[in-house]
Amino acid sequence: MADKVLIYSRFPKTMMARFAERFELLDTGGKPAREVFSADEIGGIRALLTAGGSPLGGEAMDAFPKLGAIVCYGTGYDGVDLKAAAARNIAVGHSRGANAASVADIAMTLMLATTRRILVADQYVRSGDWAASKQSPMMRPQAGMPGRRIGVYGMGEIGRKIAARCAAFESEVGYFSRSKYDLPYQYFPTLEALADWCSVLMIAVRAGAETHHAVNSDILKRLGADGYIVNISRGSVIDQKALVAALTDKTIAGAGLDVFEKEPHAPDALTALPNVVFAPHIGGHTLESHVAMQDCVLANLTAFFEGKPLPYGIKSA
Asked: Where are the alpha helices (DSSP H) in 27-96?
């Protein structure tokens, strides 16, 4: 008999196909498990699969008395209460680094689209204004990448790939992280110092209590009127109201956003602004990344059911 795995979050069935070949899946469709399955079915669940951002606290864990493993699809695990999991002797795993390259690519795409005003340029062509030789202040020359100062907030696997890509564009790269690493980039001891120095701030830090609204009105003011911000981390890292105000009054020049505070809802105050480029949280959404993330999930679940430590486990808080 195949081992049972509860699908806690809502996922497209195509993303679950590989897991169904190995395990018996009990798919909640994102609904509370008790609304979908009987008490007997829930009571026997030993492992569940979740999206890292889905809230999963101690009370939710207690609904599964035999739960021993929580496996996150993707690199994020900010929705999981690690202390509650540790107190219940529940192992937590994720897909560490599996989508780093794809997320870094989106960061670069958003930066280039924002700083070079690609959406405005696209509309300039589509509208016929270019053919009609109509002048547009939005089409004035912008600063290029060579010599541009790029600040990376968070120097994990994604941050390092962003930094390497920026360096290849002949930009200067600096970073702020909890730790200083042996890397060929300038290290700054605080986020404030990094914001003072750079003209583009790339957010690649992990979400959590210590990074909640770390990018606030003060950081945005330090970035300056010619500064841009790109967020491919979690929406919670930026104070969204402060960001709207900074974009509206031109405290900063623009933003590229793949994540938002309350997804999938990007507030009208943001979407109405012409100096913002959006993506619907697709940083890790490539074929290669999904295969890699699924490999990590399969490895974690297989190890758990074999009584082994999770190869992509997360240390408790």
From this structure: 33-36, 39-43, 58-61, 82-87
By the 10 Å C-beta count (0-12 exposed, 13-18 middle, 19+ buried), 59 is classed as exposed
φ, ψ of residue 196 in degrees (nearest 5): -65, -35
pTM reported for the whole predicted model: 0.90
30: its two tokens: 């994102």
Catalytic residue among 117, 148, 281, 290: 281
* Catalytic residue (one of 234, 288, 290, 306): 234
- Rounded distance between C-alpha atoms, residue 121 and residue 126, angstroms: 9
Would residue 263 show up in a list of annotated catalytic residues for this protein?
A: yes
Q: Are 199 and 209 in contact (CB under 8 A)?
A: no
Cα separation, 107 vs 202, whole angstroms:
8
pLDDT tens, 105-143? Answer: 999 999 999 999 999 899 999 999 999 999 887 788 888
pLDDT digits (tens, 9 = 90+) for 10-38: 999 999 999 999 999 999 999 999 999 99
Q: Is 281 a catalytic residue?
A: yes
Q: Which of 178, 263, 288, 290 is catalytic?
A: 263
Say if CB 9 and CB 50 are below 8 A apart: yes
The two structure tokens encoding residue 253: 């020049």
DSSP state of 235: G
Q: Give the list of residues 6+ apart from residue 282 with CB closer than 8 angstroms, or none.
A: 106, 258
Which amino acid is residue 24, in one-letter code?
E
Per-residue pLDDT tens over the stretch 238-252:
999 999 999 999 999
**Tokens linked to 190:** 């605080």
Please name the amino acid found at residue 130: W
285 labelled catalytic? no
Phi first, then psi, for residue 159 (nearest 5°) are -60, -40
